[in-house]
Amino acid sequence: MKIEHQNLIETFSEFKELKNINRPTMMHILEDVFRSMLKRKFNIEEDEDIQKSFDIIINIDKGDFEIWHNREVVADDELENPLHQISISEAKKIDEDYEIGEDVTNEVRLEDFGRREVLSIRQNLISRIMDLEKNNVYNKYKDQVGEIVTGEVYQVWKKEILILDDEGNELILPKTEQIPSDFFRKGDNVRGVVARVEMRNGNPLVIISRTSPFFLERLFELEVPEIFDGLITIKKIVRIPGEKAKIAVESYDERIDPVGACVGMKGSRIHGIVRELRNENIDVINYTANPQLLIQRSLNPAKISSIVIDEAHKKAEVFMKPDQVSLAIGKGGTNIRLASQLTGYELDVYRDNIEEEEDVNLEEFADEIEEWIIQEFKKVGCDTAKSILKLNKEELLKRTDLEEETINEVLEILRAEFE
Questions:
Q1: What span, in angstroms and rounded, lies between the C-alpha atoms of 162 and 188?
Q2: How many H-runs (helices) and E-runs (strands) does the chain carry?
Q3: Which of 94, 161, 342, 387 could make an S-S bridge to 382, C-beta 3.0–4.6 Å?
């Protein structure tokens, strides 16, 4: 029995070491476990009988406990309830000085219980400790959804990474929540935001994300004091993780340039964020309630000629010079896609110069014009049909080393294309 008693005390000691469990909660659970133990031993149904007849004394600091049974001394022939009463003959076995009407208090020891009962108590206590730990982790992180957390990589798997926080709690970073170029090894420190918290098969599952817009928002709060202090507000963030992001910011103080404050002197503030996000390109935009101006700013660095907005269908036709179109669309369409998400309008880009749109590259005439002639025109910057037709014959003769007859033939072929 001594081993079981020691095991129970050890379990209790482990319990008191849990720093994230407050004392009232700890007391409540321990008392509940011991009450259940007494109910089974003395066949008690009501909690009131436990409270009336037993004192459960828990020493949290030492990790120990005492249980005392209180009974009234009655005559041997008046004993009706052994839970609350003790016969005078039994009382005198404890102490010869006891008399009828007095209270007898004797300690209930674990040795008084069976081996199986003590093991059951220990298992119950361990189970309650584990449940409490799980609930504490769940409640802790449930209140931190959208906030940044830091942990150390403990295990790297194909579909997810297991991370431990500073208290040893497990966090999961799924592959789908990682920036495509993320690469972590065991022991690396990782930052992310708490994306969601759920209970799965009785265990808390804390999912963190590095692709969430909230992650970028929290990084800006850390790097830009004006955002943290509320002088600058982040109106909206859209991201293609690891590639490009757009963030619209607004200042409540006319003296503060929101874009300049976010970028910092020579990019000092935004540089750390870009590095954390694996060189994600970040456009910081000065927010405005004017949709035309917001669309124009969101499509930077492209220069816009005009915008036609269809408010009813939340669409906008954006017109610009041909050389600006590729800038507006961006690599793989990322710029215009993010601009559409940021502004809330479906954006369609059009060239505002129809003639330029109808132009034809000289290479298209390779079956009619010899390659060396095409190269001669290209040397002087004429690589499309329209670029040649804009110049008169004399100018073409002066710029190129071609003969007049050759130039005439080329002009005839090109004019025929547009007739």
A1: 11
A2: 17, 15
A3: 387
Instruction: Give me the residue spans of the domains in the chain.
Output: 2-136, 150-209, 220-285, 288-358, 359-418
Query: Which CATH entry fits the domain spanning 288-358: 3.40.190.10, 3.30.300.20, 3.30.70.20, 2.40.50.140?
Result: 3.30.300.20
Angle at 329 between CA 324 and CA 330, to 5 degrees: 100
The CATH number of domain 2-136 is 3.30.1480: yes
Write out pLDDT tens, residues 202-230.
889 999 999 999 999 999 999 999 999 99
Peptide bond into 301 cis (omega under 30): yes
Q: Is the Cα dihedral 17, 20, 24, 25 positive or negative?
A: negative
Q: Which fold has domain 359-418?
A: DNA polymerase; domain 1 (1.10.150)
Regions of the chain with pLDDT less than 50: 1-5, 19, 355-356
Cα angle value 142/146/147 (rounded, 5°): 90
Q: How far apart are CA 286 and CA 260, in angstroms?
A: 10
